[in-house]
Write the C-alpha cells for this entry.
Amino acid sequence: MLKATLRSFLAHKGRLVLSALAVVLSVAFVSGSLIFSNTLSHTFDRLFASTAPDLTISPKEDLSEAIPSGTTATLPAALADRVSRVEGVAAARFDAEDDGITVADSENESVGSTTGAPTIGTDWNPTSRSPVKLTSGHAPHGPSEALLDSETADRKDLHIGDPLTVIAAPGSFKVRIVGIVTFTTTNPGATLLFLDPPTAQAKLLGSSKAATGISIDAAQGVGNDQLKQRVAAALGTGTYEYRTAEEQAKSDVDQLGGFLDVIKYVMLGFAGIAVLVGIFLIVNTFSMLIAQRTRELGLLRALGADRRQVRRSVLTEATLLGLVGSTVGLGTGIGLAVGLISLMNAFGMNIRTSEMVIGWGTPVAAYVVGVGVTFVAAYLPARRAAGVSPMAALADAEIAGIGKPLRMRAIVGGVVGAAGAAALVGCVTSSKTASAASLLGLGVVLTLLATVIAGPLLVRPVIRVLGGAFPALFGSVGRMSQRNALRNPRRTGATAAALMVGLALVGGMSVASASMSKSFDDQIDKTLGADFVVQNGNFLPFPQEVTEAVRKTEGAGLVVRSRFAPVAVRLPDGKRVETTAAGYDPQLDDVAHITYAQGDTAAALASGHLAMDLDFARDHDVKVGSRVPVEFQGGRRTELTVGALTDQDSADGFGTQGGIYFGLSTLERFAPGGQDSALYVNAASGAGADRLRAALEKTLDPYPQVQVRDLADYKDLVHDQIAVLLYLVYALLGLAIVIAVLGVVNTLALSVVERTREIGLLRAIGLARRQLRRMIRLESVVIAVFGAVLGLALGLVWGVCTQQVLALQGMNALAIPWGTIVAVVVGSAVVGIVAALLPALRASRMNVLAAIAHE
C-alpha cells in the first residue's frame, strides 16, 4: 500500500501542483509574519537594551494621552547635580527632548518622516551607549548650530551648512547643520536633530532650568536595582518614575508593541484567508482525484485492501503534499520576510537581513499549518473513498457525490444558518455595543459555515437563473456549459466557495466603510459651522505662534481655539474613568452646531464648569449641577460642575469617552502649557472665503505641518482614513481571488481530464475548437459569478448588521456602495474567463481519436 501510495502521488504530481500552491501561500504568510515580527522585536529589544542608561528618572505621569495635548512633562535639570552626589552614582546628566517638533528646510518643506515616525529634537550629550556617532562636521555650539541624522540628510539631500527651521512649542528658530550623525544600531525611522544642551532646554522646553529626564550611570560594582533604591531614597518615591535599564527597555518595547502587533496580525490575517480559501481548493482537488481513480481504488479493494488502508493511502498522499508545500512555503516565507525588511528599510527603518530571527517556533508553525490544512481538507474525500464497495468501484461508479441526496447538508446547513441568523438578529436588536459586536462575530462565522455547507443546494436554482440566457446567446454551447456547471452541485459549490469567502468579506466591509463615511459626512455637515479649520496634518498640536499668525491674517474674523488634555473623572457611581477632554473658546457656538439635552454652551464653558455626553452621564448617574472630581496631568485636582449635557447622536461625543469639554480658561488653569490642536476660523465681514483661504495658506507657508481645510477637505480627510482600512480588505480580497482562481483552474483542469472521452465525442460530431473553448469559459464564468452572488449577498447582510453596531456609536447612516458591488460581479466574470484560459486551451488541443479511446 505504501508503494502504491507513493506511485500514485508521483503519478498525479502535476494535478496536485495548484493545491500545493494554496499550501505554499498559507505557510508563506504564517512563517513570513512570524519571522518578520520576531526580527523586529529582537532588533528593538537589542536597540533599547544597548542604549538605555543604568537608571532613568522621569516625571511621573499618571494619565495616558489618547489624543496628544502638546504638553511636555519636565523636572528640574538641577536634579542631575543632586543625583550625582548619591553613593553608587558614577555620572548623572539631564536630558532635554521633544518628540513633537517640526523641522523644515529652506523651501519650507518638512524633513521629517512620512511614515508616522516622530521628529525628535534632543540635546547632544554623547556617551558610550548613544545610538548615534558623529561621522562628519563638529558638535553643535550655541543656539544656531545643530546635528542631523544621516538617513534624513540622504533622503532630503541635506548637507553641512544647510539652514533649517525648527518649529517647537516655545516658538520657531533657525539653525544651521554643522555635523551629520550616523546610527550605530537600528534606526527606528525617526528624524533626529541634536542641539547643544542649553539650546535644547531653552528652545525645546522653554526653560533653561527644565529637563525631560535624568540619565544615570552606576559606579562599578553597583547593581541597577541597588542604584534605584539609593536614588529613590534620596529623592523620594512620590514625585518621579525610576526605571532601571531593563525596565526602561521593556517600557520602550511595550510602547512599540502596538505597532509591531498591528503588522503581525495583518500578516496573520492574510495567512488565515489563505488557509481558509486553500481548504476549499484542496477538498475539491482530492474529491475529483479520488473520483477519477475509482477503478484504481476498486482494484485495491478487490486485491484485499480494507477501508482503513484506502483511507490511510489518501491521507498519506495529503500528508506528502502538505510536507512539500510546507517546505516550499517556509522558504517562500523567509523570502517574504526579507522583502518586508527591505520595504521597511525603504521607509527609513534600518533593519539588517543578516540579523533575521528564525526561531524554532516558525518551522513548527509552518509544518503544523501546512500539513494540518491538507490533512483536514483531505479527510472527507478519504472517508468517501474508503466507503465505496469494490464492485461499485470496479463498475466505475463515480464517488464524488453526483446524484447523491443532499438531505444531510440541508439539515446541518439549515440548523447552522438558523443559529447564525438568530445571532445577527440579536446583534441588530442589542442596545449594548459589546454584546452587539460579539453577536455580530458569532453570526458572521455561523452564516459563513451555513452557506458553505448548504452551498450545493443553491447551485441548481441559482445557476439556472445566472446561466438562463446562455442557450439564447450561445446556442447549444451555452446550454452544455450551463449543464456542466449543474452536473455536480458539490463540486461547483466547493469551487465557488473559495471566491465567496473573499467577496463576502469585501462586501461587508464596503457597506461598513461607506456607512461610516456617510455618517461622518452627516455629522460634519450637522456640527461644523466654521469657514475653515486649521489643523496639523497628523492631528498633533502646534505652537502658539501659529495661532497668533492666523489671527493676524488679513480677512480672518473669529478664531476659536481647540485644545485637548488627558483627565480622570471620579463619577457618582464610584467609577474612575480616564479620557481626553477638550477645551474651547467661549465663541464655540459661532463655529459649531451642538445639540444640548440640557444647558447650553455658555453654561458648559463657564469657569469651573464642564459639559458631558447625555448617554455617558446617564450610565454613571450624572445630572446637570453634579459636582465631579477631575484629575489633570501632574496630579492637579479640582471639582467641576456639570453645566450641560450634549445629545450629539454619538456615544463618544467629540470622539473621546464621555464627550467631556470645558472652557479654555478652565483648561489653562489646571493644565497650563498645552498647545492648540485646531483653529476654527470664520471670514471677517466683507472678506470672501476664497480670499481668506489664499491668505491663510500664505500665512501658514512657513509651517509645513499645518493645513487649511474647508468642509469638503475635512470630509476627504475622514474618507482617506477610512480608506486605509478598506485597502487592507481589498488586499485580502486580492489574495483570496488568487487562490480562488487556482481553485477554478484546478477544478476545470481535472474536469477536462475527467470528461476526456466526452470531449472527444463532441469534437467527433462537429464541435469546433473555438466552441469547445467557449463552453469551458462559460462554465467557469457561471461558477465564478455564482460565488460572487453568494458572497455579496452574505456580505451585504454582514455590512448592514455591522452598521447597526456602528449606530450604537452614533454612526446612524446606512450606505450601500452599489458601484462597488456591480464592479465586483463584473470582475468575477473576468476572473472566470482568466481561470478558464489554460484548461480550455488544453481541452481544445486534445487528439480526437485518442480522447475517444480514453478510459
